[in-house]
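Re: Re: ligand-bound prediction request (bumping)

Still looking for help on this. To restate: I need the protein modeled with zinc ion bound, output as structure tokens. Inputs repeated here so nobody has to scroll up.
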Amino acid sequence: MGDILAQLWTPEVQAAFTLAVVFLVILYVLSIVWVARDAYLRGGHWYVWAVVALVPLLGVIAYCLLRPPLLLIDRDEQELEVALKQRELMKYGECAHCGYPVEADYVLCPNCHTQLKNLCPTCHHALDPRWTVCPYCATPVAARSGQNRTTAPAGRKPVMPDEA
Ligand SMILES: [Zn+2]
Ligand SMILES: [Zn+2]
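Reply:
Sorry for the wait, this slipped through. Here it is.
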């Protein structure tokens, strides 16, 4: 038996065995690094998972099964969604005169015909009456601040929803 083993244990087999061990060690170290990094990106206790990953093979398998969900990315997505909804809400307001819901680029209130915005004479974008220049095409426009809102204090936006 020992003779057979000694015959099999040639320098070639030794070299192959060493290579395999080195390969496994590299794989082992990389798996720990991957677990720690992945857990960190997911907002989990990455150091705990790095210790778990020290158990060869089983640690990585356990991590794959039990790793925390993508908390950080989820949170970012939720914040983005809230911001988008707020932007959507900002597009709407109400008529300063009658309270009818109007969109940001309405020029007239469809209900009471109060003028909400000026129209740019050049590019026909709806402009805030306080603006003296069109931000779309740089045409100077006459500000008509007092036409329909003589009582509105300067600096307040006339059609913002938070005024209601
Ligand atoms: Zn109105
Ligand atoms: Zn313009």
